[in-house]
């Protein structure tokens, strides 16, 4: 029984340490970036600044962030030009 739990623990630790591999095979689709972050909106729409973490879907490039009121916003790739988080 100990061997079974040890194997499960080994597999779990292996998977968490292989983040890029999980992204490559499509299991992990979200990249997280610690705030503060700046998001440049498309078509001269301005700039959004957030102190919160942003999340970006690797597959769709949809960006999700929280504003100062803790409201969640999502922007599709054509709605923003770039983002940066120091």
Automatic annotation (TrEMBL):
Q: Which UniProt keywords apply?
A: Signal
Where does the signal peptide begin and end?
A: 1-22
Q: Which domain of life is it from?
A: Bacteria
PROSITE patterns reported in the protein's UniProt record: PROKAR_LIPOPROTEIN
Name the UniProt record assigns to this protein: Uncharacterized protein
Highest classification ranks of the organism: Bacteria, Pseudomonadati, Bacteroidota, Cytophagia, Cytophagales
């Amino acid at each position: 029984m100990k061997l079974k739990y040890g194997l499960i623990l080994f597999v779990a630790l292996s998977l968490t340490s292989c983040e890029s591999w999980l992204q490559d095979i499509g299991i992990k689709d979200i990249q997280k970036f610690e705030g503060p972050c700046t998001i440049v909106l498309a078509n001269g729409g301005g700039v959004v600044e957030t102190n919160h973490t942003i999340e970006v879907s690797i597959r769709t490039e949809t960006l999700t962030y929280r504003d100062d009121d803790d409201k969640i916003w999502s922007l599709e790739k054509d709605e923003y030009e770039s983002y940066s988080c120091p």
